[in-house]
Amino acid sequence: MLFNSLTFIAFLGIVLAVHVSPLPWSAKKSSLLIASYLFYAAWNPPFVILLWISTLVDWWAAGRIARTEAPARRRALLLVSLATNLGLLGYFKYGGFLTRNFAEAMAAMGVPWQAPAWDIVLPVGISFYTFQTMAYTLDVYLRRAPPARSFLDFALFVTFFPQLVAGPIVRPRDLVPQFATPRMATARQFGWGAMLLVLGLFEKIVVADGILAPVSDAAFGARELLHPGDAWLGTLAFSGQIFCDFAGYSTCAIGIALMLGFSLPDNFRYPYAAIGFSDFWRRWHISLSTWLRDYLYVPLGGNRQGAARTYANLMLTMLLGGLWHGAAWTFVAWGGLHGAYLAAERWLKPRVGHLALWRTLPGKLLLALLTYFLVNITWVFFRATDFPTAWRMLRGMLLLDTGGAPILGTYALASASAAVATILAVHWHMRHRALHAEVSRWPVAATGTLWGLMLFAIAITQGGSDAFIYFQF
């Protein structure tokens, strides 16, 4: 079930009606749990079983871990949880990738082996809810948080429908306690949540799907060498598309949760105004970057074991972060580039970071533009379906081959350029600001007019039922 569908609007209306009814809190939580299962089952009902498996195994394992002091038994219980979750994720998401690469490795050694057909459907959002439920067991094992007291609260934490399939990846200590006591949105919270829902749908339907996706698809779908202008426009369009698509989903999720009286953490903080790559990852997909930091980078040793080990930990973390996004070497390349950027930044900062230039506005703008330029190089690998497509795009972008013919028309050039420029301007303006605080300073009439214009644009935009990009992860 897509947020950007009339079916979901009807579904949300029913959920809200039950939530504001005079039922006991336990009954309302049960209705939210059932609604979350129905929301997920709308894609493929049998995959609800995977949610049940993760829920039951992690509830059982974390409860036993909390009651056990023997280190060996605690590790064994943690291993059961990790093996179950990573086993399901590995089978459904990486099984075909591993068998294909094994077959290619055998062929390279002269051993003929045909990989079996892998016609397994990828459960939507499996990477998100797997990381979320793993965080629960890991936090209990590391004694960062106690186990949930109520199975209903924990089950709802795993399946809470606003953020179930594409995040934010919520930590148990941030969401489970919210289910313990009755929650009801105030009129102000409900209004702000509805505003966020409309904003997220506007980003997705109007900007990502209506304006930017056609330009990005045309450029990355071309079979011939592209003109440098088209290669850059297609890549910049994708940079705007993926932000508006993914941040649009997160904004919708936060808004829907707020309409129900719950709080979800921000997942984006205007990343295209980032100055450097550490800053970028503090602003882009925050729930994933902090998850990787806390459960992978720090346990590997972080920056506590010398420079060489720090660079290796950064690279390994980002390579695995790339692989989390998709079972393809292009995603690994995307993660590897970000790992190299972070390592290079860490090496350069003590050597040139003290220069007064970087504290001036021109210096900050220069670093922000360099960051954005290099981030766009990585987006080529993220969007390209294979390496030949990526190389074709990069050859045009880097002026290594300028013989390509233009394929994008004037309207595509104007609309995509205006959209990307607007996104960059908004990000820079909002770099140190919070949306809620900014909007609260506007006149009520201006806020209402903007809300109405976004609703109107959503209503008249054609083809607004595409799935969110991150559903495939």
Overview of this structure, please?
By secondary structure, this protein is mainly α. It has two domains: 15-183, no CATH class; 189-472, no CATH class. The protein has helices at 6-19, 25-41, 48-67, 71-108, 126-141, 151-159, 172-175, 187-221, 228-259, 277-281, 286-300, 307-325, 329-352, 361-383, 387-397, 410-429, 435-440, 444-460. Helix 3 packs across helix 4 (71-108) and helix 9 (228-259) crosses helix 16. It is globular. The mean pLDDT is 92.
Structural class: mainly alpha
Report mean pLDDT, rounded to a whole number: 92
Largest sheet: none
The shape, in one word, is: globular
Oligomeric state of this protein:
single chain
Strand content: under 5%
Which bin fits the share of residues in helices? 55-70%
N- and C-termini, Cα separation: 16 Å
Estimate nothing, just give the exact number of structural domains: 2
Radius of gyration: 23 Å
> What's the number of helices?
18
Count of individual beta strands: 0
Helix and strand element order: HHHHHHHHHHHHHHHHHH
* Unreliable residue runs: none
Keywords: Acyltransferase, Alginate biosynthesis, Cell inner membrane, Cell membrane, Membrane, Transferase, Transmembrane, Transmembrane helix
Pathway: Glycan biosynthesis; alginate biosynthesis
Subcellular location: Cell inner membrane; Cell membrane
Pfam families: MBOAT
